[in-house]
Hints:
Elements: H1 3-15, E1 19-22, E2 25-28, H2 30-36, H3 43-56, E3 59-66, E4 69-76, H4 98-106, H5 109-118, H6 132-140, E5 148-150, E6 157-163, E7 171-178, H7 185-206
Antiparallel strand pairs: 1-2, 3-4, 3-7, 5-6, 6-7
Helix pairs in contact: 3-7
Amino acid sequence: MPFHDVVRLLDWLREEQFIETRAGAHFPSSLMKVASAADPDRTLLRHTLAGLRDELSAAVYVSTYTSGEITIQECASSASAPPVQERAPFSDTGHASAVGKSLLAQLNFAARMDHLSRYPSFQLTDRTITDKHSLFEQLDGPGPHSAQFDLLESDTELCVAFSLGLPGRASSVALSLPVTEHRRLVDTAQLLSRRAPGLLLAHLLTEDMQHGDAQPVRHAWPQPPVARRALP
């Protein structure tokens, strides 16, 4: 690699706490030592999510579309960063929630229709989109890797989700804030988008991607990587 690319990569790895630099030498951090060992309980991913939760002062979630279901893989929350209060299971509200819309945006048409045939759209609020054509327009307009928001479907929380870009699998990282903290949403979402690559690396290091029921997705792993749109 060119020298300036190496420097940028090392700076990024240090910022994400994957390496430590002492006396000009670079060493694997405690996180990388965890990743190099067997990690059945996802210690690395949970540690990374907990760091994001504290940095953002918001509950943080990693979700995937697995075996035809919207699944929250991990969640990091606390008393000061409370999790979403589920009024219905995430699979039932995929048409309305930020997590659900982010995952559906990454599926192909057939997989979307299959999901909606099993979980028909229903009215959560007077702003919920239940028409399939209108929903697909909203999903496809900004692109599968853009932010998806849940701003008006709850009186208590605000949510935003981004595609995480796991190879061959629809996946997302999301955050939620109490509605009383709505002024922080845009800045917090932008920071989450910048931190997403580090979370992706933690996920790839802890997940065996050779297993699991991958669903058909619209885009393969981009070569070369394309720029991620933080916000519309």
